[in-house]
Specification:
Layout: H1 3-37, H2 41-47, E1 50-53, E2 62-67, E3 70-76, H3 79-84, E4 117-121, E5 132-134, E6 150-152, E7 159-160, E8 181-185, E9 188-191
Antiparallel strand pairs: 1-9, 2-3, 3-4, 5-6, 6-7, 8-9
Amino acid sequence: MSVEEKMDSGRRQLLLATSVAGGAAAAATAVPFVASLTPSERAKAAGAPVEADVSKLAPGEMMTVEWQGKPVWILRRTEEMLATLDKLDDQLADPASDKSVQPEYAKNKARSIKPEFLVTIGICTHLGCSPSQKFKIGAESGLGDAWPGGFLCPCHGSTFDLAARVYAGKPAPTNLDIPPHKYLADTKILIGEDGTA
């Protein structure tokens, strides 16, 4: 074997060794990188459906649960609260919820599966503030004699009725969002999953 052939053979071996070492280094770097792209257990739990037991919720009371890092309100409406929903269409920006986010089964006047329970995300659709409950009616509410009860966003004054529908002329562009949900039992609601997907 000539000197040139020995040098070529040595170069080939060096190139082969370098390629193998480079490939191993690339694989060693890629494995943790790819693993970092999968969601953590904490992240998976944050997006998981949440169960809410509404058995102790009295008529007229509201509870809050967290789903995907957002407050979800569950309001048990009284007959009087439900009666106000029929009288407000001319005052609302989207009374039929045509432009708002809700599952098809909640696209009704009560925006719910069961009229008694409103399940809505408690984040204003304007700039993401959290409205507060203003269930007292009339002058007692501080919102005028005609106030029928609902929600007020303290940041910019958007008001919502007891079906989370926004009043016309307010900064919020749409009604409060209704998350996917279903009933596991008469008094147990699963928020974040409805079986339609």
